UniProtKB/TrEMBL annotation:
UniProt entry tagged with the keyword Heme: no
Species, as recorded: Paenibacillus polygoni
Protein name: Mismatch-specific DNA-glycosylase
UniProt keywords, alphabetically: DNA damage, DNA repair, Glycosidase, Hydrolase
Pfam families: UDG (PF03167)
Gene Ontology MF: a single term: hydrolase activity, acting on glycosyl bonds
UniProt keyword annotation of Hydrolase present: yes
EC number in record: 3.2.2.-
PANTHER family to which the protein is assigned, alphabetical: G/T AND G/U MISMATCH-SPECIFIC DNA GLYCOSYLASE, G_T MISMATCH-SPECIFIC THYMINE DNA GLYCOSYLASE
Length: 170
């Protein structure tokens, strides 16, 4: 199955970074396309988007200043199907993308994505005190997968921190 296209451009507020596309995303060509994935609901309920978007509208989020990529491009059933070699290669490619596009915030959708990227073992939710890429804000948010056991209200509150940061006019 072919990788799905990144949605990246210069001047983005946020690049959302996932592990890799699901099989459903690979089939449709859209990020976070699995109907059990809560990504777009979380963005809307946290105040990051003015309305509820659907996966088929993922490219429209560029207009809001939001882009998409993954640490590994190959669609899989789950993260257990990703090899160490794919992570090593993806880590380098992702770093190059972030250095090229320089978003205001690199938002890692899942602690595991961030730990794979930085090789750091201790990670808290929210903004990271020592960014891996100098001069860029790095934010770690819970995975939006329907398999996550964290209460939705708690997930939304973590994403709301990102929304408040972006919309702080003081």
């Amino acid at each position: 199955m072919e990788p799905i296209s990144d949605h990246l451009e210069h001047g983005l507020q946020i690049i959302f970074i996932g592990f890799n596309p699901s099989i459903k995303s690979g089939e449709t060509g859209h990020h976070y396309a699995n109907p059990r994935n809560n990504f777009y609901r979380i963005l809307h309920q946290s105040g990051l988007t003015p309305r509820l978007y659907e996966a088929k509208e993922d490219q429209d989020l560029l207009k809001l200043g939001y882009g998409f990529t993954n640490i590994v491009a190959r669609p899989t059933v789950g993260i257990d199907d990703i090899t160490k070699e794919e992570y090593a290669e993806g880590r380098e490619i992702l770093k190059q993308k972030l250095e090229k596009y320089r978003p205001e915030v690199a938002c890692f959708v899942g602690k595991g994505v961030y730990t794979q990227y930085t090789k750091r073992t201790k990670v808290n939710w929210g903004f990271q005190p020592e960014p891996f890429v100098a001069g860029m804000h790095e934010f770690v948010a819970p995975s939006s997968s329907g398999l996550v056991r964290m209460p939705m209200k708690q997930i939304i509150e973590i994403y709301r921190e990102l929304s408040l940061f972006l919309h702080d006019d003081t």
